[in-house]
Amino acid sequence: MKRIRTTRDSARRELFARLELRYRAGEYEEVEATARALAAAPRSARRKRPLSGWQARTLATGVAVAHGRGAEVLGELETLIAELEPVNAEVHVLRLVVRNNRTAVLVGLERYGEAETEALGVLREITRLAHVTPLWKLELSALENLAGALCGQGRFEEAEEIARGNLPRAEEPSLAPLHATLVRSLNGQGRYEEALSEARGRTPHRSRKDSGRLDLVTAEALHGLGRRDEAEDVARRALADCEHHLHPAHPRIREARVLLARVTGSEPGA
Fold it and tell me: What is the pTM of this model?
């Protein structure tokens, strides 16, 4: 029995590893559909703890958040958090992943205080698990969410400290969002020349979920410097990139439209 169970676990890990690679390649719709089909598949009555089902639902909801449908799946994320009982390290990590995805949704919904609290809670749990399993990628994602929540509250210096302090150890897929957050934090402090230099000084690999992100903060820096024509061009590029690659409900599309309106003076009071 032990050998059979180990074989099943190995096959499960290989399956989800393949789905993770497809997710990183930007196949959001296909990966979510596959994950939801796996979650809905009947399971053996002997399997009291549906680990595969939980893992599939974690992946499906995470892909939905990356695509921009976070508000749509927020209730599902909260239900999944309640269901995931951390009886072992693997389930505990799944719960932290779901909590981190919920944090990202809260940031997108501009519920920054709640997002900050949740991000800090996730980071505390990661510290407790550090001796069991390496979680640095999840930690960097949680830190990026925390920095986003701080930016939303106007605490740009704190956000800069987080982003700048963790960029040296960041690898893909954490590098691009942390880099963009650093630029955003500099914009928030009115340090536009520095922000523009930072934005153009690195060219991290960009995944589909990062569409428009760097262009958006670059356009903000250009606008802050009074270079309106350039800012308009980059803002339009950011909006087009977001609309092409992300779900219409993605918060970044709204941000790009608001910025473009501000740059072009097409909003009241501009």
Answer: 0.90
